[in-house]
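Minutes, methods subgroup
Present: GH (chair), OT, SY

1. OT presented the first of two proteins processed in the latest run. Sequence and structure tokens recorded below as shown on screen.
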Amino acid sequence: MEIHDSVKAKKTGSVQFPNSWWGRSHRDLNYIHEPFNNPDDVAMWNQLGYTQTRFTGDMYDMRQPEPEWIAPFRELLSMKHFSWSVYRMRPGDVLPNHRDTYSKFREIYNVADPETIRRYVIFLEDWQSGHYLEMNCQVIPPWRAGQGVFWHNDVLHLAANVGKTPRYTLQLTGVME
């Protein structure tokens, strides 16, 4: 596994895992949809002209049984308070610019300082036309399965799927040791 920190305040970077040991098992999970958790952002997006009523993709997360293929990530990243969510964006799903608050994560693990939190987004499949991610106003170029990005705390980011196929990622959140 390779991790590359960005020079920009070490708040962002990229990661490469050696292979995609998970195969396509992420496609068979029982995903659920939940509304976006920050009503202030939703109100702002509506004011900007976003008309959809659904701003997030679908999740399979820690409230459900952990797939066996997640354990190697836990071992490789050595974060304390490790949490995970497999995320599916169907065609038409859009998540406009926002900053993660980690409110539930901070509550569950009693994390007082959000600056210590790191979020990884691992791409579970190769990039396909229409799959989009932007971080700190920088477009993330087409990716391969096993590549990913990370950010600390309050980095502005957005994601969308304006393509023809679902976009799958694994979101890992933790406190760096």
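2. SY then presented the second protein from the same run.
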Amino acid sequence: MRAVRFPSFSIPVPPSLPDNYLLVDTPLATKSDPNPTPSSEPITNTTIYTCIAAPPPSAIQTILRTLLSTSDITSCLSTINTLKASQGLALADILTALGEQLNNLNVPVQTKVSWLEGLAEIEWRLSGGGGEAVQTGGLVGVVRNGVELMEKTGKGGSLLKGIS
């Protein structure tokens, strides 16, 4: 059985439902209306990600692909800022999801440590009141430094393998 996965939980989805259809909205009963009529609007994956303000996997994959393959810092920043603005994403949520994705990549340990240490530092600064614009730049720098470290040691290979 497939499941819709979120950072802290997952929801099982019966195989008979299409990928973009999850549930039908059923309002809670109240004293004045003990049998509310279910809404005909389907709850999709997009609806859930929007409701819980989590970055959708497609946005994280776009950010990851850009950071790993684009050496131009301005281009990386532009892509991230565009996604943040158009989808209402918060940098803290992007850091969490990106950390999970980077941790799953098959890269040398020193690169993985560099990435996770850098992301933790950015998250700490952000929680302490650091500006999102500056910390977004820090995110790009941390990931690009890890990529360049692998390129220098000749262990980079194709980082985009396995990224859908």
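Chair's summary of item 2: The longest helix spans residues 132-153.
Next meeting: continue with the remaining queue.
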